[in-house]
């Protein structure tokens, strides 16, 4: 079993796949529940995350 080092942990926590996937699921769920404010908030969060240079 590979050891969990600080570098591997940091890389795993900063991988953009997890937050982008979570925000995308939130956006789809909010649209399905007909919650426009939550949907637009999730879309704005995705846009802000991508524009911040995190992706």
User: Which strand-content bin applies to the residues?
Assistant: under 5%
Query: How does the major sheet shape up?
Result: none
The 3D shape can be described as elongated
Give start-end ranges of low-pLDDT stretches: none
Binned, the helix content reads over 70%
Overview features:
mainly alpha
Task: Describe what you observe in this structure.
With 55 residues, the chain is mainly alpha-helical. The protein has a domain at 23-55. Helices cover 75% and strands 0% of the residues. The chain is built from three helices and no strands. α2 runs antiparallel to α3. It is elongated. It starts with 5 loop residues before the first helix and ends with a helix.
How are the SSEs ordered, and which strands pair?
Layout: H1 6-14, H2 17-32, H3 36-51
Helix pairs in contact: 2-3
The gist of it:
With 55 residues, the chain is an all-alpha fold.
């Amino acid at each position: 079993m590979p050891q969990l080092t600080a570098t591997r942990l940091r890389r795993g926590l900063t991988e953009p796949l997890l937050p982008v996937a979570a925000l995308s699921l939130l956006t789809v769920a909010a649209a399905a529940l007909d919650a426009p404010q939550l949907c637009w908030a999730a879309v704005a969060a995705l846009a802000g995350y991508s524009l911040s240079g995190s992706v």
